[in-house]
Design brief:
- The protein has 245 residues and is of the alpha/beta class.
- It has seven helices and ten strands.
- Strands 6-7-8-3-9-10 form a six-stranded mixed beta sheet, with helices on both faces. A four-stranded antiparallel beta sheet has the order 2-1-4-5, with helices on one face.
- Strand 1 and strand 2 form a beta hairpin.
- The N terminus is likely disordered.
């Protein structure tokens, strides 16, 4: 099989004139308004915004969990606009590695079993998936915990398992939704350093949804949302706050 050519500044995510409108008894509410941006392969980007800014809605669209009312979302070369529910589910499994605030591990399964899970659903060869899972557990420095139940781990360790699981299918992007929201302060830096390592050493494309400037400061670029609009898109800076934009 021919290898994909590595193209400089190749877009993994491209959003064009994206609008999301919800309809209800009180009328229509436009949550996202004419959103335009792109994320290139190998970028580390944070998406920030206060409550009600539209960042959660945007996260669901980026994760192929929801679709826009109008506009385009092109994910790793695939226009998602006309995809069916089954096709969206397939692209989620192939292109996106999710890391959630609540970890979403199976508590009574081992670390190894949790990391293996996406490959089981993906019908990967058993020997290949086992070797890959062990490699990823080593990457997040949990070799000695591989046979421990997820429920026996600290919050930081559970999130590292979730990162390993997200990498299992070699996705185009890692999409992390408030990944440090359930962690004590002393474990936050540890987890964020793994995202940095994945970006710097593995050249993974990372997108973090957060409301914390300190978390966003780990990224190279921050997209700020307010009232459904992008109000700033530039270098990450933990000292920049919404009110100043």
């Amino acid at each position: 099989m021919a290898k994909k050519l590595k193209i400089k500044n190749q877009a993994v995510i491209e959003i064009r004139n994206l609008v999301k409108t919800y309809y209800g008894a009180a009328g229509e509410t436009q949550v996202l308004r004419n959103i335009n941006f792109r994320i290139n392969k190998g970028e580390f980007v944070s998406i920030m915004g206060p409550s009600g800014s539209g960042k959660s809605t945007l996260m669901h669209i980026l994760g192929a969990l929801d679709v826009a009312t109008s506009g385009q979302y092109i994910l790793d070369g695939t226009d998602t606009k006309e995809l069916s529910e089954d096709q969206l589910a397939q692209i989620r499994g192939e292109k996106i590695g999710f890391v959630f605030q609540a970890f979403n591990l199976l508590p009574h399964k081992t670390v190894l079993q949790n990391v293996l899970l996406p490959a089981v659903y993906g019908e990967v060869n058993p020997q290949e998936r086992l070797a890959k899972a062990k490699e990823l557990i080593h990457l997040v420095k949990l070799d000695e915990r591989a046979q421990h139940l997820a429920s026996q781990l600290s919050g930081g360790q559970q999130q590292r398992v979730a990162i390993a699981r997200a990498l299992m299918m070699d996705p185009a992007i890692i999409l992390a939704d408030e990944p440090t929201g359930n962690l004590p302060t002393d474990q936050t830096d540890e987890v964020l350093s793994f995202f940095t390592k994945l970006n710097r050493e593995q050249h993974k494309t990372i997108v973090i949804i957060t409301h914390e400037p300190a978390v966003a400061s780990y990224s190279d670029r921050t997209v700020f949302l307010k009232d459904g609009l992008i109000i700033r898109d530039g270098p990450a800076n933990k000292d920049i706050h919404y009110a100043e934009c």
